[in-house]
Amino acid sequence: MSDKTREICFSFACQPIVDTVERRVVSFEMLVRGTHGEPAPTVLKAISENDRYIFDNKLRERAIEVAAQLGVKCNLNLNLLPGCLTGCDDALAATIELAKLHGIGPERLVIEVTETEIIEDLSRFSAVINEYRALGVMVAIDDFGSGYSGLNLLADFMPDSIKIDMSLIRDIQASGPRQAIVRGIVRTCGDLGIDVVAEGVETEQEWRWCESEGIQLFQGYFFAKPGFESLPLAFVPN
Amino acid sequence: MINLIHLIYISAATQVFSKEDLVQLLDRARANNADRDISGMLLFEEGSFFQILEGPPAEVERLYAAIEQDSRHSQVVTIIKEPIVRRAFGEWTMGFPDVSPSDLNEIVGTNDFFSGGTAFRDCSPGRAKKILSAFRDGRWRSHLDPAMQETHATRAAFPLNSLGLARQGLQVAFQPIVDMEQQAIISYEALLRGPNGEHFPLLEGDIDEADLDRFDIECRGLAIAAAASLGLRVSLNLNFVGREPGYSRAAIQATLDAAGRNAIDPMHIVLEIRKEKVDLRPDAFIRILDEYRAAGIRVSIDHFGAGPSSLTQLESYRPEMISLDEQLVRGIERNGPRQAIVRGLLQTCNDLGIDLVAKYIETIEEFEWLRAEGVTLFQGNLLSEPEVGQLPDARIPGNAHELTQ
Ligand SMILES: Cc1cc2nc3c(=O)[nH]c(=O)nc-3n(C[C@H](O)[C@H](O)[C@H](O)COP(=O)(O)O)c2cc1C
């Protein structure tokens, strides 16, 4: 790691993922922030290209420490650059060990990756990640539907959950195409037993439309903004 | 220049509509629409409105803005807004299915329109009609407020234009796309072949960057001329280099000119696009696609489900057609994930009036599985191999029946 990267200071914000049917928080996604809560890009852009993967591991470790300090009882969603795994097979092993030390078992870890990232080296990625899945770690595909089609991906690599990209959720109650696309996704995932999370939900109408289609996991400002170094309460209307 | 668009939406009534209320709404709508050159139709069923508006873009948008604000309904959901070549409901300033307002009693349920009446059959085919069919089949209704609801080359023998390509011996093979519902060939995909009928895997770099524009245009011209000389009566799917230049204004004009010279109706041309070859920004790309559309040319996303095709493109590019990627259909009868993916896609496409073509079909098992799920459009060696210099017939799998165009 370069000195420049080593000096980067950062911390985390936590945003809940809620199950609105069971009315409970199922997980917190750990989102990187500056030490004063600055948005993620201020931290990430400071990293030199060569250090991306090492730094990514460091991020996850710190995320676990923050979550443990805050006393998270539910699952933890952690972001991963798939290159980390293919570059270094045991990248996740360190994460898992550290989590265990803090009393967080692997079955409570959800690793988030984007479809575009996975597809770069799919076979290698699935081989490595599947070893971790054997330990109980879950995998979520982030930003689903937006980038590379995640469709073929689902045939070759089946995640535990997908997070529907917020561009598809935005104003869905008024957009026929988005509704048709999301219905298709829900149908496919329902058939495959893949959990569906609607991301970036900002309004009650967006939430109600999704819920009426059978989606029960949500994340977004409507329920709770990310809390800097804190576990925010989630709001779920009746 | 886009002269005509259609806009389709659904909404939920916020009040109980009596006959009189509907007649009043319609009278006003009809008078206004006639003045504004707007046609279309309005359906009202158990508290849901379904309306198709056709007309000049500015007029349609202005009207829609007013309609959206109308407090007699809410939950207005836009299904689609796109350029069209001709109206599907040209005669109707605002059709209220097939019946005069005095018979409103009978039409409130719209059954007449869909089953007994001839109006549904008489409206021009196209996306509006497909979405209308989806509505008829119960789609688009579930979200309304419940309270308000009750290479086998026979060498080319076609006359070629004086194109460089033909001189280099490039040829075009054709492979049919079959509609199982109509039991008919609805289109031929044109595939580029080498001088000996060999596959023509055109690689980047085979052609100078500077020549791509011309090459693409020539390919289309070659395919159009070949198809016309063979007596094409159905549609033609064009799928060539598909590089950015192919999406230029000049290419649009050249494609239309080639169609004109060969007496092929642009409405019979389907452009198969592969986004990864296009470097244009999405909005610029969409503008170009819309220009093709305004001329009647339809757009298909090829290899859907693979590579950079994304679900959001179904919204942004509004294709009339998509074709499934080979990987998705291969051995689908024994592959659960592929089945689930195709089921979801079918649902999305049905809802949006997008035709879904199952391409690369090689086995009877693949065919039968897809057919049973409701896929109607098929292409692949099981039905017919591509042939140079002819528009080949197709075999209906599992059946001795042969189809000609
Ligand atoms: C479901 C629905 C469909 C409508 N369709 C039309 C229409 O096709 N044309 C129209 O002029 N007004 C239509 N309206 C009425 C408009 O919202 C608005 O009241 C009307 O254009 C105002 O006309 P005016 O300016 O002549 O008073 C519709 C209203 C509803 C609720």
Describe the structure.
The complex is a heterodimer of chains A (238) and B (405). With 238 residues, chain A is an alpha/beta fold. Helix content of chain A is 42%, strand content 21%. Chain A has a single domain, classed as Alpha-Beta Barrel (TIM Barrel). Chain A is globular, with a radius of gyration of 17 Å. Chain A starts with a helix and ends in a 10-residue tail after the last strand. The model of chain A has no long low-confidence stretch (mean pLDDT 89). Chain B is α/β, with parallel strands linked by helices and 405 residues long. Helix content of chain B is 34%, strand content 22%. In chain B, helix 8 runs parallel beside helix 9. The radius of gyration of chain B is 23 Å and the shape is globular. Residues 97-118 and 142-164 of chain B have low confidence and may be disordered. Classes of the chains: A alpha/beta (238), B alpha/beta (405). At the A-B interface, helix 8 and helix 10 of A face strand 1, strand 4, helix 11 and helix 13 of B. Bound molecules: flavin mononucleotide.
